[in-house]
């Protein structure tokens, strides 16, 4: 019986006519038989999308758990923006309902969910060959019933007397002609006769179980310190004291009360609130006529509501629940019967206080954009913010989920709210000053409607602090953002036992991506960092989607590393040099710091590709060459392909295998133990370092130009690498320097001189 396939919209077109690069590369690889076990059926384009339809051969068992067939017809739909995973549709009309399918508006064709990782991560290594291999693997594992993990659900989807008052620090800094004269507060009754009065950011509503308070602020002329003799008990006594500083307190207060009554006509909120009188008292020495040395703040609590105080000052009268203004003022009513008590005034928490209490002389005004406000990022920002360090822009698209409460600094009141919004509110309530912190709930690599806001923030920052623990985000910040800001990356290893800091130098001569590569090399070679990328134990699911996965990471590790990280940020930003540091915690909480020396970066172009390496590697292969002279020698190159940006990172090499043939004019690389060594390097670095290509040396007096034998080797290398859609990479080292070839052999290679790192053409 002939299979029935679902129709696909759009017009049929040829592979070469496709406009979207990924679609065209996939179609052409299939058409040229460069992808095993898959064949091109046709290509289509429609509505800004392009589709590549293929038949894939699937390895299926004799007894299938899910009815996957030996040949499945698949449509891969790619959009021009390339911002999300290509849509993978099973076109067989009776394709079964299996785990790990996207739920779309229509049931058919069914859409395959291939990856747990974000697309930004997948794009770094995407090739047509790897992509089709993943489709075939997905279908084969589904047929066996082992794709779906056991723990995942099925897919659906003066001295104070009666308390304290906290006032804004700005009151001590404001000029009299610009003085704010009213504050709205609420009071918390600690015990009978003891209150705590707190300034509101905005005019409050009457709170349940709280006392609404309005504060009237009055500024005195400078007075000699120590002139107060007794504690005022009535408003009248306070007025006499204030008059010594040139303040007519009663006149100012009457005017203030009239204004409040007029502003609240028809309402009783302010008139029914209690009154606090705040006196700002500049102080000078008795024997000197000079500018004030200090400002003293005195606060007094009136035990009656403002409505009653107005009556006792002869401003109005209440008859039948209605307040009527009196004509004229009764001069004898000066507040003798208005009882007051002193409060202990406290400045609200401010940046100067924050810095001083943390042992620093002054706040730091560095502008930092922090990307990634999770279990590490949130406490790091909090630690630094509480110490008056930096002005912050927080960028993170994630909402706070219930499982985040295991480690995140936010509480359950913020569940369902963007982390940046919650953190901005929380920290903004700690230091209530404008311009210190703001949040942008956006993905920094794809900010959408926040694009302009994110762009402006990054451009105006002094530091871009990446705490996202995402390779793609760090690479994006390092290479794709136009900003003079210095880049710093702070993250924990997968088990949470180690903390890693990568920091560019002030002039960005060593960029974050290259420091990242030297980090991988150190992990692979330094015994002090052994086990850094050990497998994560105890991954947990917090939802029903296949990506709803988190790690069982102890909170104490996150807190420990946040403390180390926040201090490290202070340290590294005060230094102009690049830095790479790993802190290792043992189960007892002991910390070992490992500082890794950084080598000078060497970057150069090679056709469509850019090659990035460093002097450490160049000197290493130079030593290998010198040790084998007059014979030639060589080995394999290890590194990383950034296929999205066409960058080849040459990071390390391995010694020539013992079965290699080394003669004065010929080198044939052996293979004994090589696969094991390459696999070990990949395992040590969590797969970040892989086989990149080959290098070999030329004898003295011979330039780093390929011989006829070298051309044959490069042809072989091209065929090998093309199996995965990767370019061939060959480096030739001679006495004159190192010539590097990527993708093709050219007559004039780029020449890198290992002694000084200079780059030129020959």
Task: Spell out the blueprint of helices and strands.
Elements: E1 11-13, H1 21-31, E2 38-46, E3 49-57, E4 71-79, E5 87-90, E6 101-102, E7 110-112, H2 119-123, H3 128-144, E8 163-167, E9 182-191, E10 194-199, E11 211-219, E12 223-224, H4 235-243, H5 249-263, E13 274-284, E14 294-305, H6 306-312, E15 316-319, E16 322-325, E17 340-347, H7 351-357, E18 364-371, H8 377-386, E19 389-395, H9 419-430, E20 437-440, H10 451-459, E21 463-466, H11 471-479, E22 486-492, E23 498-503, H12 512-525, E24 540-541, E25 549-550, H13 555-573, E26 579-585, E27 591-595, E28 601-606, E29 609-614, H14 615-628, E30 634-642, E31 647-653, E32 661-663, E33 666-668, H15 674-684, E34 690-697, H16 708-722, E35 729-734, E36 737-742, E37 750-752, E38 759-761
Parallel strand pairs: 8-10, 8-17, 11-13, 12-13, 18-19, 18-21, 19-20, 21-22, 29-31, 34-35
Antiparallel strand pairs: 1-2, 2-3, 3-4, 4-5, 5-7, 6-7, 9-10, 9-11, 13-14, 14-17, 15-16, 22-23, 23-26, 24-25, 26-27, 28-29, 30-31, 30-34, 32-33, 35-36, 36-37, 37-38
Helix pairs in contact: 8-13
């Amino acid at each position: 019986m002939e299979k029935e396939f679902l129709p696909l919209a759009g017009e049929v077109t040829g592979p070469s006519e496709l406009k979207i690069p990924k679609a065209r590369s996939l179609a052409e690889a299939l058409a040229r038989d460069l992808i095993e076990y898959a064949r091109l059926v046709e290509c289509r384009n429609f509505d800004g999308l392009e589709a590549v339809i293929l038949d894939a051969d699937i390895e299926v068992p004799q007894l299938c758990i899910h009815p996957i067939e030996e040949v499945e017809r698949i449509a891969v739909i790619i959009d021009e923006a390339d911002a999300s995973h290509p849509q993978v549709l099973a076109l067989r009309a009776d394709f079964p309902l299996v785990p790990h399918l996207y739920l779309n508006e229509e049931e058919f064709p069914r859409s395959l969910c291939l990856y747990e990782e974000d697309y930004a991560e997948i794009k770094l290594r995407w090739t047509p060959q790897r992509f089709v291999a993943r489709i075939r693997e997905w279908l084969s594992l589904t047929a066996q019933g082992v794709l779906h993990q056991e723990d995942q659900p099925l897919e659906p989807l003066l001295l104070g007397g009666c308390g304290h008052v906290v006032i804004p620090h700005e009151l001590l800094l404001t000029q009299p002609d610009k003085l704010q004269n009213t504050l709205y507060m609420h009071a918390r009754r600690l015990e009978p006769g003891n209150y705590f009065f707190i300034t509101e950011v905005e005019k409050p509503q009457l709170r349940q179980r709280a006392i609404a308070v309005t504060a009237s602020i009055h500024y005195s002329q400078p007075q000699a310190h120590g002139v107060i003799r007794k504690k005022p008990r009535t408003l009248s006594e306070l007025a006499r004291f204030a008059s010594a500083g040139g303040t007519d307190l009663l006149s100012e207060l009457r005017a203030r009360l009239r204004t409040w009554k007029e502003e609240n006509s028809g309402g009783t909120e302010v008139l029914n609130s209690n009154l606090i009188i705040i006196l700002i008292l500049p102080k000078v020495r008795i024997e000197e006529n000079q500018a004030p040395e200090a400002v003293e703040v005195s606060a007094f609590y009136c035990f009656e509501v403002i409505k009653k105080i107005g009556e006792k000052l002869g401003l109005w009268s209440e008859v039948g629940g209605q307040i009527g203004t009196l004509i004229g003022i009764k001069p004898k009513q000066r507040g003798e019967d208005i009882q007051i008590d002193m409060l202990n005034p406290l400045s609200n928490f401010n940046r100067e206080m924050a810095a001083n209490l943390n042992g620093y002389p002054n706040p730091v005004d560095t502008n930092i954009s922090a990307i990634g406000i999770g279990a590490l990022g949130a406490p790091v920002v909090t630690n630094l913010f509480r110490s008056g360090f930096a002005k912050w822009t927080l960028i993170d698209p994630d909402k706070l989920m219930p499982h985040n409460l295991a480690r995140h600094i936010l509480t359950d009141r913020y569940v369902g709210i963007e982390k940046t919004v919650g953190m901005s509110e929380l920290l903004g309530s700690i230091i209530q000053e404008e311009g210190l912190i703001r949040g942008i709930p956006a993905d920094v690599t794809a900010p959408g409607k926040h694009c302009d806001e994110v762009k402006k923030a990054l451009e105006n920052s002094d530091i871009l602090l990446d705490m996202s623990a995402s390779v793609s985000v760090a690479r994006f910040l390092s290479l794709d953002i136009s900003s003079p800001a210095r880049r710093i990356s702070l993250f924990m290893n997968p088990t949470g036992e180690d903390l890693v800091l990568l920091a560019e130098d002030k002039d960005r001569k060593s960029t974050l991506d290259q420091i990242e590569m030297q980090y991988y090399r150190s992990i692979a070679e330094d015994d002090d960092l052994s086990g850094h990328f050990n497998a994560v134990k105890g991954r947990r699911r917090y939802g029903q989607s296949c990506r709803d996965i988190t790690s069982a990471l102890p909170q104490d590790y996150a807190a420990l590393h946040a403390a180390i990280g926040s201090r490290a940020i202070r340290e590294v930003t005060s230094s102009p040099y690049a830095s790479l540091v790993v802190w290792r915690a043992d189960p007892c909480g002991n910390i070992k710091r490992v500082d890794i020396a950084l080598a000078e970066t060497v970057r150069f172009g090679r056709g469509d590709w850019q090659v990035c390496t460093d002097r450490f590697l160049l000197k290493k292969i130079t030593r290998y060459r010198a040790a084998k002279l007059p014979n030639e020698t060589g080995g394999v190159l290890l590194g990383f392909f950034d296929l999205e940006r066409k960058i080849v990172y040459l990071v390390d090499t391995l010694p020539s295998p013992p079965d290699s043939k080394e003669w004065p004019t010929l080198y044939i690389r052996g293979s004994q133990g090589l696969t094991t060594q390459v696999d070990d390097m990949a395992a040590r670095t969590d797969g970040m370092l892989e086989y990149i290509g080959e290098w070999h040396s030329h004898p003295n007096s011979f330039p780093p130009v390929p011989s006829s034998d070298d051309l044959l080797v490069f042809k072989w290398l091209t065929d090998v690498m093309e199996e995965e859609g990767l370019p061939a990479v060959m480096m030739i080292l001679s006495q004159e320097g190192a010539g590097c070839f990527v993708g093709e052999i050219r007559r004039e290679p780029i020449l890198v001189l290992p002694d000084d790192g200079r780059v030129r053409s020959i």
